């Protein structure tokens, strides 16, 4: 029997015969680590495992002046953002306006969640086709190149009515003792959403647009909040926490703990992003690359794991409202790089047909939109 299959059956709190899907969700590293070799499903190909110690040493962008309305500071921030987005699509921000206590509280809640027994985490499991919920190594979705991580994701501001706020979501999936967790994440998401709109303002100015252009476009947008836990791995050099990919959404705002493991592909090589507690890590995603008509790069990145310490990150993925058309503004449209699409079409593609990697957007455009055109031909 495949070693991982036996581990998963051994540690499953469910009857594997009638609950194969739940059994496969269990990612219990204390048991997985007892095996002499890393289970084959966690192995990644050589080319994805290129080791690096190079560090991307770009000064974080200080947002203080811009947030206080200082024109000179805004001009500087705009030019730093433009340079980073044209080059690789990645930058860090400090003095971002998100209270450090709110950030710490969100880390504490995330830590408490991941320390729960597996059976409890699985009660909030992700449903097929949905991005929300708990997932262990995405083992219910993929059979190879499994990421060495567990994740817990939930939507923020779906504008579907107050009954869907995070306090109620946490209570409904984890029970009444998670009400406080819901409040903490509600506050965290509110603050990071405000930050995202400020960054969209800088992005708009940097592309020669009115400062409010993307702010208005994303005001009613939908976001996904994700907690990532990367446990230590005895054979860390053979696997990855998150494989090389570009985020399919528009903008990603990440806060990592002090362990380190995030790497971006910049200047033709993988480079380490040293953790910096005061900073948020920001990257451009595929949908914003399309909205800028290809001027700004969707950042290729990955997360490596290590032998000693668990690593955690809080990730806020910002997207337009599901059915809003993704089309660049008129003055960026000399030669159109991508056809119109909607976030819900791209999201559906990543959930049901394709695992996000370095070429998600182009593959989506090539395969799906050409199919769509064929279907609509008379
Ligand atoms: C629409 C989405 C797909 C992913 C979750 C959201 C936003 C980012 C995507 C993801 C994180 C990109 C890397 C690969 C992925 C499979 C992951 O490792 O978690 C992606 C998400 C997903 O499908 O769960
Ligand atoms: O955890 C990290 O540092 C990166 C995670 C990531 O890239 C993602 O969740 O999309
Ligand atoms: Fe990512």
UniProtKB/TrEMBL annotation:
Domain of life: Eukaryota
Cofactor: L-ascorbate
UniProt-listed GO biological process terms: coumarin biosynthetic process; gibberellin biosynthetic process; response to molecule of fungal origin
Species annotation: Forsythia ovata
A Pfam family per the record: 2OG-FeII_Oxy
Keywords, ordered alphabetically: Iron, Metal-binding, Oxidoreductase
Family: Belongs to the iron/ascorbate-dependent oxidoreductase family. GA20OX subfamily.
Gene Ontology molecular functions: gibberellin 20-oxidase activity; metal ion binding
Residues of the Fe2OG dioxygenase domain: 220-320
Membrane-spanning intervals of the chain: none
Source taxonomy: Eukaryota, Viridiplantae, Streptophyta, Embryophyta, Tracheophyta
Pathway the protein takes part in: Plant hormone biosynthesis; gibberellin biosynthesis; Hormone biosynthesis
Name recorded for this polypeptide: Gibberellin 20 oxidase 2
Reaction equations catalysed: gibberellin A12 + 2 2-oxoglutarate + 3 O2 + H(+) = gibberellin A9 + 2 succinate + 3 CO2 + 2 H2O
């Amino acid at each position: 029997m495949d070693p991982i299959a036996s581990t998963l059956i051994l540690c499953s709190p469910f009857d594997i015969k009638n609950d194969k899907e739940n059994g496969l969700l269990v990612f219990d590293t204390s048991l997985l680590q007892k095996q002499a070799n890393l289970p084959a499903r966690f192995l990644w190909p050589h080319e994805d495992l290129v080791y690096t110690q190079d560090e991307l040493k770009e000064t974080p962008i200080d947002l203080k002046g811009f947030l206080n309305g200082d024109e000179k500071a805004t001009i500087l921030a705009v030019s730093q953002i433009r340079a980073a987005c044209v080059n690789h699509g990645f930058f860090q921000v400090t003095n971002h306006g998100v209270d450090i206590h709110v950030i710490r509280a969100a880390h504490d809640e995330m830590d408490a969640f991941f320390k729960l027994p597996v059976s409890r985490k699985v009660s909030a499991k992700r449903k097929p086709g949905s991005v929300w919920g708990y997932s262990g190594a995405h083992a219910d979705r993929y059979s190879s190149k499994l990421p060495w991580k567990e994740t817990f994701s939930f939507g923020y501001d779906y504008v579907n009515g107050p009954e869907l706020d995070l306090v109620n979501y946490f209570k409904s999936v984890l029970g009444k003792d998670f009400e406080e967790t819901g409040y903490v994440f509600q506050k965290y998401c509110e603050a990071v959403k405000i930050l995202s709109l400020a960054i969209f303002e800088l992005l708009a100015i940097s592309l020669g647009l009115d400062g409010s252009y993307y702010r208005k476009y994303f005001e009613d947008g939908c976001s996904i909040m994700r907690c990532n836990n990367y446990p230590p791995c005895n054979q860390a050099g053979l696997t990855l926490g998150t494989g090389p990919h570009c985020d399919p959404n528009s903008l990603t705002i990440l806060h990592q703990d002090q362990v380190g493991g995030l790497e971006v592909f910049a200047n033709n090589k993988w480079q380490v992003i040293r953790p910096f507690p005061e900073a948020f890590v920001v990257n451009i995603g595929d949908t914003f690359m399309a909205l800028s008509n290809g001027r700004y790069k969707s950042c290729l990145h990955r997360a490596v794991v290590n032998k000693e310490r668990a690593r955690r990150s809080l990730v806020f993925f910002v997207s337009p409202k599901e059915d809003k058309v993704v089309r660049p503004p008129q003055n960026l449209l000399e030669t159109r790089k991508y056809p119109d699409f909607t976030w819900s079409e791209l999201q559906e593609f990543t959930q049901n047909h394709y695992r996000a990697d370095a070429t998600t957007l182009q593959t989506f455009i090539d395969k799906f939109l050409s199919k769509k055109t064929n279907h609509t031909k008379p």
